[in-house]
Known about the structure:
This protein is α+β, with helices and mostly antiparallel strands.
Amino acid sequence: MEHRKRSVNPGAWESCLSVGFPTDAASDSRLKPRSVLANAYGSTLLEMTFSNRFLSALGANTLESLRNWLEPVAIRPDHVVYRMGDRVEHVYFVESGLLLRLAMVEDGRTVSVGVTGREGAAGAANALSGLPSFHQVTGHVEGEALRIEAGRFADVINASKEARKVADVYLDALTISSDLTTTCLAFHPLSARLSTALLNAQDANGGGGKVLATQELLASMFAVQRTSVTSLATSMERAGLIRTGRGAVEILDRAGLERSACGCYDRQARLWADLWGAVDA
Length: 281
């Protein structure tokens, strides 16, 4: 199955909310899901394919049920989508970029427990269970997503056995992915984890060499001091792997990063490829 994203009217993205920006009821009420989506994608979603694998796996009838309620939004780095304990109001289907899932302890320290890119749907588990967010979810790599109200998502998915099977398989894979992330955090050195994170970010950025990432964000992802990230980034820069700048990391030697990354980079990629391959079969 081919997964190419149809070109979108840029003005449609600009007219919508950016993920994580605070809003009030008045600003939300000005969004018109039907008219916004018509401007962005044309009269019907059935005429297009998606970069997001979750949406791509759904049947035509389910997409027809979803199409009037999907809103395009922009993913902005560092902006909060959900805070831990928040009621999940929307499910986000990432078309490009990355969302970061962070676990938080009592003193406010955080650690990355996973990312959501084009393979998934942020907030899907909470929408189906009705439980609040257990993680803080923030924008990590700039991009675009489609979102739908959580209640409407749950209604549409639960109305179709086929769609519910897609969701259940996805949620099982999400649990396995989180287990892999936890194992990586426990056993792999910071250098390998940072290389893996930069590769994931570059993949989500369409292969572009520059990744927007502050040292503060990287430190919070790995639950380490900023000085540890600074020291490691300096070593990687001297080795010719990356070049650091204000709020960004430029990848100079991808092959070298792949050699220094842990095996979790390939394991995660295989997990999602196997998942969607099985659903598509």
